[in-house]
Amino acid sequence: MKMIKVGMIGFGTIGAGVAKILAGNGEIIRHRLGAGVELVKVADLDITTDRGVKLAPDVLTTSADEVINHPDIDVVIELIGGYEPARKFLLQAIDQGKHVVTANKALLAKHGDEIFSAAAKKSLSIGFEASIGGAIPIIRSIREAFVANRIKSIEGIVNGTANYILSKMSDENCDFDTALKEAQEKGFAEADPTFDIEGIDSAHKIAVLTRLAYGTPVPFDDITVTGISGITSEDIECARVFGYRIKLLAISKFDGQAIDIRVHPAMIPIAHSMANVNGALNAIRICDDMMEENVLIGHGAGALPTGSAVVGDVVEIARNILSGVGERLPAGSFQDKEVKKIPFKSISEIESEYFLRFSVLDNPGVLSKISGILGKHSISIESMIQRGRGDRGEGVPLVMMCHKSSEKNIQSALKEIEALDVVCEKSNLIRVER
Fold first, then answer.
1. How far apart are CA 47 and CA 55, in angstroms?
2. Both 118 and 257 in a single domain?
3. Cα→Cα distances 369→61, 316, 400, 416, 420, Å
4. How buried is 78 (Cβ within 10 angstroms: 0-12 exposed, 13-18 middle, 19+ buried)?
5. pTM as predicted
6. Within this chain, do residues 171 and 197 fall inside the same structural domain, yes or no?
7. Catalytic residue among 41, 205, 253, 345
8. Is 205 a catalytic residue?
9. What percent of the chain stands above pLDDT 90?
């Protein structure tokens, strides 16, 4: 029987998951593929720690070069993360004529076009389904299932750590720090959770999805990114009263002229298709000209869900090899000559409904001052909550839901409101998505 030989660089959580799947489900892969998939070399700086999967001693190495330069390896899997040396390893593997698979969304967000181009020049395949949404087949859906559709928008809960924290705060009425600590204890959050809770991980993912959906280079630094560390129990409770839940959303919208791409906490109605996607689950909602919406929900992280996406890419590439073809579709979804720069909107250009929370002195006339400034900037109030009474100069929460207005007007109004002597601290703004 024909064997497709695979090498892997990185033997952490996902790498161990890949090894377990190839060992435990090798027979079903053979039945479906008509060939075997053999993991012949695994490189990692630490080859002594027990990962819960047994590999032959000659499979493990501390040298990535042994994987990249191995004459029998057909496919190289990169699972070390980060920009370098991951970028170097992938380009070297491609230069050696090897197909590649990666779960590295940060690398693809910054250097995807370079890697896609290198693979195309060699007629090689690059699989990266595992880079976004774990086991959710979002890459394959955009590149193949929705290939005839004009995509109008993508919205996603694409970070399980942030979603777990917000779900915990919503369902158990705990504060942010308590929810983060539990997420870390349960292994849903890293010791340093900055990339997850500040939205950077989500921004990497929406950058890649935007490139695939609209066929344009995405300057990563142009993405507006706000995390969830400023969300309070007060925000969660007020959202519930107004009929919303708060989620960290990665958003990409194309109106035919320019792209609106951003990551931030958003209030979504409780009837929204993603409002009750809780815990560490991910969800991605795509709207296009052929359907109102299509929502994909699943496990967005973890050894086996992400590992299954990696193995799925390996098997897809193996089918190409067995058929004697190289890459049968462009890695970036569009033919290279059709990739064109599309303008990106500034955050100041968007329009939205807004949730605003102020901390104000409980003095007569405060509401009229704030509503007067909002009105001056063409912002109308839909509903309002004032929670509690203040004394001894302490601030009390004043919460408002505002009708749709421009981001530019909202920011101008907030700057003016925060300069008032009756406002005790910086206000909190949460955009509404429907």
1. 10
2. no
3. 68, 62, 14, 11, 9
4. buried
5. 0.94
6. yes
7. 205
8. yes
9. 91
